[in-house]
Amino acid sequence: MTSPFLNDRRLQRLTMALVGGALWGMMLLGYYGLVHRPLVSSSSARQVRINTLERQLQGHTNVQASHQQLQAKLRELRSQIDTIRRRVPDHSLVAEFLSDATRIAQEGQLAIHHYRRNATHQFDDYSEVEVMIQGHGSYESICRFLHQVNQLDRLSTIRQMEIELSTDSNRYPFEVHYALQFGMKTATKFSLKEGVL
Question: What is the 3-class SS of 7-74, one letter each residue?
């Protein structure tokens, strides 16, 4: 026969073991629900965010490279505009152009017989005046004259050119019509910091 005292002790131990097991189970469930699951969930969310940021960084690198290329192209275009601006005076300065053309012709053994200032045209961004020059010279001296006039600081454009046939190879009559640009009105002063024209 067993003593009731032993049964009570066994019952107490069993109860303690069950209560202890239940506490451990609750602690494990609490740890799982309160610590482990949020960490795993947070880790997954962070990994998704990391992947998104990596894709954006790759895209940003491409955008940054494109931006640098566009900035270089912009600087190049601004330099070209500045160069053109320096070649376009504020006023027509026809007399100075004809003086330079006459000097070039004399140095190149080319004779100028006649010159005439023609019409002035105004456009939205600039104006231009037409100048006609007639003369004669060898084919080589005419080509050299055209090249050297093109090298002047002053921007000019040949609108029309005629060279007549001649039996004398040193005396080809020619007529050239130049358009002299002046008075550029377009705002071309800009700042690289502002990034605007």
Answer: HHHHHHHHHHHHHHHHHHHHHHHHHHHHHHHHHHHHHHHHHHHHHHHHHHHHHHHHHHHHHHHHHHHH
Inside any domain, residue 144: yes
| pLDDT score recorded for residue 6 | 58
Q: CA 13, CA 77: separation in Å to the nearest integer? A: 91
Shared domain check, 51 and 105:
no
Do residues 73 and 119 both lie within one domain? Answer: no
Q: Tell me the mean pLDDT per 10 residues along the chain, length 197.
A: 64 82 83 77 81 78 79 91 85 92 93 93 91 94 94 91 86 94 70 46
The region, left, alpha or beta by phi > 0 then psi within -120 to 50, assigned to residue 51 is alpha
Residue 33's Cβ-side half-sphere holds a number of Cα atoms within 13 Å equal to 6
Q: What angle do CA 76, 77, 82 make, to 5 degrees?
A: 100
Instruction: Tell me, rounded to whole angstroms, the distance of Cα 92 from its chain centroid.
Output: 32
At residue 192, the pLDDT reads: 46
